[in-house]
Design goal:
By secondary structure, this protein is α+β, with helices and mostly antiparallel strands. The protein has helices spanning about 10-15, 40-50, 105-115, 165-170, 195-200, 230, 240, 255-270, 315-340, and strands spanning about 25-30, 75-85, 150-155, 175, 185, 205, 220, 250, 275-280, 290-295. It has nine helices and ten strands. The strands form four sheets. It has a four-stranded mixed beta sheet with strand order 8-1-10-9. The chain has a two-stranded antiparallel sheet with strand order 2-3. Strands 4-5 form a two-stranded antiparallel sheet. The protein binds iron/sulfur cluster (3 copies). One iron/sulfur cluster binds near residues 158, 159, 161, 205 and 223.
């Protein structure tokens, strides 16, 4: 057991002290964002399985996202990023000026007549106004040209880092490395000190805000457990089970890395040259992620740090220097004391 803080690590569970017979192959996620449809089934499944309280469920007004970011009550978050760009060499498929009236006109007329009690025109449009920020499609306004447009969707989660700073700084042992190499926080041991929150380089873990005695686990650090209670019995995590497109793929990390590389190669061959993997490299600043991603643009576009570094990387050197300083001070004190006795 080396308790390594940085660098490549063949087996995080072994590094944490799990012995043969207990240790399992490292488990994780490969999230292929190129096939995510933004349905949010993963967010809902996570909330249901883990009995996570609601976190507002507000429309933000800036996108179709309604949760905004990962947090103590959002362990899976589906980001929606709107971009004026096509998918690889894909044609928008809607070139030219649209014919006929804008769909929004039809929709508004239908809504108006329904509100005035006339239901005869209901069902003539297959669009429904859900009160989203806008019902006008890109280039759909009268006389406008259709534009290139794409949504990038990414289901984000705790990365179950090879070197997890959240775990390194926890003073109570509430955060621990499981036999599957994942990182789990235990509600009944967390004292709510919050040291783990700034330590995470991805902004994943947070303390739950709510009413004391009413909100479940109020004040305690919360994050994805990679469904420790499910994978221990041979089940898949709830989010991966619910994903209809298999954008979230669960399994042995080694096998997932190979699968991810094959998918990137296939996308490149199809002209999607921006496709790249994020977090699969065990030589990066956190020793590789247990939950890594296929992205279609720079990590910053998705709100991910481009070159994350484990925040406890320099701890051994800091302890060495602090020890050296203490020994030097002690030696000085002894010298003064013994010198003064002469
Ligand atoms: S992403 Fe953050 S919370 Fe998750 S294991 Fe890594 S350091 Fe901990
Ligand atoms: S693995 Fe489980 S806890 Fe983690 S995001 Fe998926 S459903 Fe939630
Ligand atoms: S990851 Fe899967 S379940 Fe989640 S939003 Fe995308 S397609 Fe839906």
């Amino acid at each position: 057991m080396s308790n390594s803080f940085s660098g490549p690590l063949a087996d995080p569970a072994a590094d944490a002290g799990w012995v043969d017979g207990e240790r399992q192959p490292r488990k994780g996620f490969f999230t292929d964002t190129s096939i995510c449809i933004g349905c949010k089934a993963c967010e809902v499944a996570c909330k249901e399985w883990n009995a996570i309280p609601d976190d507002g469920m507000n429309f933000l007004g800036s996108s179709y996202d309604n949760t905004g970011a990962l947090g103590a009550s959002t362990w899976r978050h589906v980001a929606f990023i709107e971009q004026p760009k096509s998918f690889g060499t894909q044609e928008p498929g809607i070139a030219g000026t649209p014919v006929g009236p804008p769909a929004s006109d039809v929709l508004n007329k239908t809504s108006d007549s329904a509100l005035s009690g006339d239901r005869s025109s209901l069902g003539t449009s297959n669009k429904v106004d859900l009160g989203l920020p806008s019902t006008t499609l890109p280039g759909d306004a009268e006389g406008a040209q259709r534009t290139e447009f794409r949504w990038l969707m990414e289901s984000d989660v705790c990365k179950h880092c090879t070197h997890a700073a959240c775990l390194d700084v926890c003073p109570t042992g509430a955060l621990f490395r499981t036999e599957f190499g994942t990182v789990v926080v235990q509600d009944d041991i967390c004292n709510g000190c919050g040291y783990c929150v700034p330590a995470c380089p991805f902004g994943v873990i947070d303390r739950r805000v709510g009413e004391k005695g009413v909100t479940k686990n109020e004040g305690l650090a919360q994050k994805c457990t990679l469904c420790y209670d499910r994978i221990g019995t041979g089940l898949q995590p709830a989010c991966a089970t619910a994903c209809p497109t298999e954008s979230i793929q669960y399994g042995d990390v080694d096998e997932l890395r190979e699968r991810a590389q094959r998918r990137v190669d296939a996308l490149h061959a199809e002209g999607v040259h921006d496709a790249r993997l994020y977090g699969e490299n065990s030589h990066d600043g956190v020793g590789g992620l247990g939950a890594f991603f296929l992205l279609l643009d720079e990590p910053e576009v998705y709100g991910l740090p481009p070159d994350a570094v484990v925040t406890t990387k320099d701890l051994p050197e800091m302890w060495r220097r602090a020890g050296l300083a203490a020994v030097t001070m002690l030696a000085g004190a002894i010298a003064v004391f013994t010198g003064g006795g002469r």
